[in-house]
Amino acid sequence: MEIGAIIVGCVTGFLSAYFGIGGSSIDTPALRTFLGLPPLIALATPLPLAVLKAAIASVAFERQHLVNFRIALYSVLAGAPGIVVGSYLTAVVPGKALMLLTAVVLFLVGIDFIVKELTEKTFAVEKPPVTPSATFVIAVVFPIGILAGLLANGGGIFLVPAYVIFFHLTIKEAIATSLLTVIVMSVPGSVIQYHLGHVDLRIMAFMAIGAIPLSYLGAKLDIRAKSKTVMLLYGVVMTTFAVYFFITQLEG
Q1: Where are the transmembrane segments (predicted)?
Q2: CA–CA separation, 85 vs 88, rounded Å?
Q3: Angle in degrees, 0-180, between the axes of helices 201-224 and 2-19, rounded to the nearest 10
Q4: Cα–Cα distance for residue pair 234/218, rounded to 1 Å
Q5: 117 with 238: CB under 8 angstroms?
Q6: What is the pLDDT of residues 84-136, one digit of tens each?
Q7: 127: exposed, middle or buried (Cβ count in 10 Å: 0-12, 13-18, 19+)
Q8: Model confidence over 4-53: pLDDT tens digits?
Q9: Which one of 107, 169, 186, 241 is CB 3.0 to 4.6 Å from 163, fit for a cystine?
C-alpha cells in the first residue's frame, strides 16, 4: 500500500499542479479505487496534502505574474467559511453518496471544458477581462466552499471553471489564482476532517513523497504549454476518470 500511495501522490501531484485543482478531487477516486480505502478516509486524507501541493505549484505560477490576488483574497474570505459548513456535513452524509457526487462533479466540469475548447472557433474574440465586485466574488465562491467542504477538497476543481466562466480569467490565470486560493481554503477543512478522524496520516505521508517534486514539475510544464492544450487535456482527464470512478463506485 505504501508504494501505491507514493504512485498516487506522483500522478495526482503532477495533475493537480498542471490543472490548478489542489488534487483532492483526483486523489479521492484514486485512493478509493486503487488502494481500497474507506470512503470517508479516501475523501479526507488528501486534503492536508493539497495545501503543500498548491503552495509548491504557486511558487512557479507567481513568478510568471499569473495570479489575480484580488480575486484570490475575496475567494478565501468567502470560501473558507463555506468549507467549514460543508466539512461538518460530511459527518451526516453517507460516504457512498459523496463518492458518486464527486464523480458527477468531475464529469460535469470536464465536459464543460471540452465543449468550450471544441467550440472555441465560434467565439473567436475572447471575452474581455472583468473586475468583479467583492459581492459578486463572494456570491460565486461561497457555494463552492460548501461543496468543497462536503467533498473534502480545497475547491480548485470548481474554482478554475468558475474563474474562467464568471470572471473571464484565462485558463492559466484561473489555475494560478485557484492554487493560491486552495492553500488557504484547504486549512479549515483539513483541521475539521482530522478532528473527525477521517485523515490517515501514514498514507498522506507516503503520498507526499511523490507529490512534492511532481507538483513543481506540473506547474512548470503548464506554464510552457499552450492554453488550448491545457483546457482540452483538463476536460479529457476529468471526464474519463469521472466515468470510470462512477461506474466502480456504483458497482461497489
Answers
A1: 6-23, 35-59, 71-90, 97-115, 135-167, 174-195, 201-219, 231-247
A2: 6
A3: 30
A4: 13
A5: no
A6: 898 888 778 787 787 788 788 879 878 887 887 777 644 444 556 678 999 99
A7: exposed
A8: 999 999 988 888 788 766 666 778 888 988 899 998 899 889 888 888 88
A9: 169
